[in-house]
User: Fold this.
Amino acid sequence: MTILLDVRDLAVDIPTEDGTVHAVQHVSFAVNEGEFFGVVGESGSGKSVMVQSIMGLVPGARTSGSVLFRDRDLLSLAPEQLRSVRGREISMIFQDPLSSLHPQYTVGWQIVEQIQAHEKVSAKAAKARAIDLLDRVRIPDAAARFDAYPHQFSGGMRQRVMIAMGLSLGPALIIADEPTTALDSTVQAQILDLLGEMRSEFGTTVLMISHDLGVLSRVADRVMVMYGGRRMELGAADAVLCGPAHPYTAGLLRSSSFNREPGTPLVPIGGRPPSLLAPPEGCAFRDRCPDAMAICGSKPPVRHYDDGTEVACWLESTPVEPDPPVLPPPSLLASPDDPIVKVDGLRLTFPQRRGEPRVVLDDISLEVRRGETLGLVGESGCGKTTLARAIAGLVAPTAGTVEFDGAPTANLDRAQWRDLRRRVQLVFQDPFGSLNPRRRVGSIIGDPFRIHRLASGAERRAKVQELMELVGLNPEHYNRFPSQFSGGQRQRIGIARALALNPELVILDEPVSALDVSIQAQVLNLLDELQRRLGLTYLFISHDLAVVRHVCDRIAVMEGGRIVELGTADEVWNDPQQPFTRRLLAAAAPEIPREPRDRILLPLTVTGTGAQQPAAGHPAAQHLADRVALEVVS
Amino acid sequence: MTRFILSRIAFGVLVLFLLSVFVFMLFYVSPSDPARIIAGDKATEELMAQIRTNLGLDRPITEQYVTFIGNLLHGDLGYSYRSSMPVSELVVSRIPVTMSLVFGGMVFWLAIGIPIGIVSAKHPGSVRDRLGQGFAIVGISFPTFVLGMLALYLLYFVPTKLGFTLFPPSGYVPFAESPLQWAWHLLLPWLTLALVVAAVYARLTRGQMLEVLGQDYIRTARAKGVDERRVTYVHAFRSAMPPLVTQLGIDIGLMLGGVIVIEQVFGLLGVGSLAVTAVAMQDRPVVIAIVLLGGVFVVVSNLVVDTTYALLDSRVRTATR
Assistant:
């Protein structure tokens, strides 16, 4: 097997106003020719910056180390030489195909441009090649679509265009940076399949970055796990994902909802990732690690297993499995006879300037039982958010009725409407966009009290701080601004605000999809706990079937404005009746089996790479020696 | 697209109609008496009454307005109170001067402002960027007449005193008479106008380019191996253009209604200087004509901007189709 891309000791520093961000800290890995290499990490792990700096695409970045690609060091190439590598020998596919394609040029023009940037071919020949490529990534009617603009394509089709463009010059390596994250799950599966197919057809090597372990487990041959700008674990995909040797990898798997039995709480990784401005001396994961030891304060060595797995960790045994958090028993048990919301024959259409009115919701009948969590799943544009808004009384239906707690929500007077606003609350998807950045957190959470004139002054403040405590925020942060909180904490702010007035129904619109896996688990557990303690009813909207299965009692599957299937989470998951549900399920991330690995940790002295090796006499080496000695004695 | 343009034209006509009502009302409520201005201080009451009857000023305002609009639709804007010349002739004779000034100046301010903005945005924080921004601040903060006088002093007065003539001090030579003389006479006003306006374009270009250069599709272009010049001009500048076109449309539309200060400083008999004398003399028909003319220019340039916008941006194009 030949090595195609050999990254050695790569460090990337980015100067910013706050100081230098050490985005990538001395990472080494090698990608073999023809393989599918996955890089997994949460936001801020440095994975995107790493591959983009290899290509010279991060403005202002300072790099050190070496990146060997076909006997050349990409980091020391002149700009013009690097330009000729980009797009021709290594091409990239980015996360959001809409923003990654130029909105004002046709897709055909953009593919032709790439061909002509590297080869002297006539416009006509380049166009023929572009059409052929569009055809090969299965864009229907490629010749006609050549002249279409990116906004005239759907998300999945746009990503196909990006892939066609990436393949246009038969590159040796394709770097795909979260290529499916912005797409619906069924489309996601199609794009992954296409990438795999193209890989065998064109003989291309793929380096794919993802935050999603489920996605990588499906396609990758080998996987590298990154955290805090460093390499944590590297090895064959099944070895790393089924039998993680690093506590961080193990923690990620435990907090992924697709990997846990429904009903069992997730085991989140506590705390938050380290600052890249001042990276810790020792292990970057130490503060959040359940296996942390005193020695973790010094730089961990790279340990080798005989199955080829490499781990940067002092731990020599399998990582511990911390117990899941114990949740209080539910204070309210849902029963079919006690619905809080009754939707009957709901229909919603929008008039269009020309032609038939657009049907957004089509004859929907549904009950939400008091105390349950009802999941609404479906692809983007299927009407799930609109249905939730109709249930909340925020949009008036064209036909049909919505009853909340036995009373219809149509034609309410002012007081009743206000009352409904108090009893039904919403939590939104984007914790960054849905909080006003110029307002203090205390006043954001206190808004409901102000609007409904329920509390003011010191009383309001006390209530807000109580809420902050309830959702796990430090009440002393009352006067901070949203920008001073992380994504997960911001979502807690949104939850605290929603809970302020003791609502009965909380509509959660994709509450965790903008969050990292380890943070998702924290928020999902919080929601579960709050529901048990306060007897809340949740309407949980998500495109992620794994999350929905994990948290919901019942699931309603929506397609094209209709509910095509409704049943308990188990029924829908194990015995789907509708083809659409089956498609959704097939596209959802598979469970990764946990297998104990039968492998041998090679002794440090034999395999050490020198740089990672604690020198003899170093306190770390001494500590290790003591430990080994102790274990031998006991 | 045709439908879009037609609706914009209809809207423009409505704007002009409202504008005409508005200026008409303004004069009706103003305390000055045109008859007094025409006849002079020593005129008798009878003479003034005679004048009012001749001008139709003794009739109700609605009737006056209807007559005015009727005449306007026949291309008749009436006669100047002061010079007794037909207003249309008076105004039309001034338009070439102002047009020459504005469109010539535009070439200069675009040629100065846009490159400065692009270079600044490509190297933010660099010495070039700071020089460019410094230039913009100076251009924006200098009063136009000071710049104009300075240009006259340095490029006309000083050389002439030393015995050679670089530029003529003032005046206008029609293009048809001598293109060379035309350009030579207009060069100083052009440069002065360009210095004032280029600053706005430099800043606007810089801001737009900085935003666009941070977009994902610029990263895609680089990842494709497109060379940096092409990334800058074909990819980034293309996206940065629409706001520049908008600004240009507004500026041109406004300026064609008269570039008052520069016309005065350089003694150009354009629409702007006509407006100044007409207002000072209470020459009602001329003022009304100039206001409407300005309105027409603004409406037309906006129409051109909107159409260009649709041509520049495929998304607008499909939305308006």
